[in-house]
What does this fold into?
Amino acid sequence: MAAILVVCSGNICRSPMAEGLLRRALERRLDDAAPVVGSAGTIAIDGAPAMPESIEAARERGVDIRTHAARLLTPELIDGADLVVTMAAEHRDAVRRLVPGAVPRTFTLKELTRVLESRPATESDERLDARVGVAAEARASGAPANRFDEDVVDPLGMPLDTYRAIAWEIDEWTDRLVTALYGPVPARAEGA
It folds into this structure.
């Protein structure tokens, strides 16, 4: 089964929310065929809980991350992922330093979404690995990027309203990502 790894710094704010929100979006779309989603942090302390504000902001968006336990990013976690989605360019760069071979499957959330939205899915490339390949080829060929808006801001130390804003942003981007990966949801036939 395919696997997606979400990466941020401490694995206690952004990536736990993104893990939960992306998992929900994928399960809504693909049911039991959804890829496994996990998360890690470039400077995480193994076993640390998600921040209370992250837990609350995710709960308000319908996702329960109360049992989250942080994991330090390792080469093994990267190697086990078919796709690595980072919260910021610095995390993408950290993944590349740890496992240079992961470059073609490592993107920021916004970068990947924008690249794939510019190249709609076809029936021949609806598998995760095929879409990741499309994104890697597009990036290598100079697909337009917005280097001024690649990052999801770290809310650590900020008030709950900031976490809510970040959770909303991640929710929007993960929904867009799932559509970009697998195409629009087919319309239901009349009377179905």
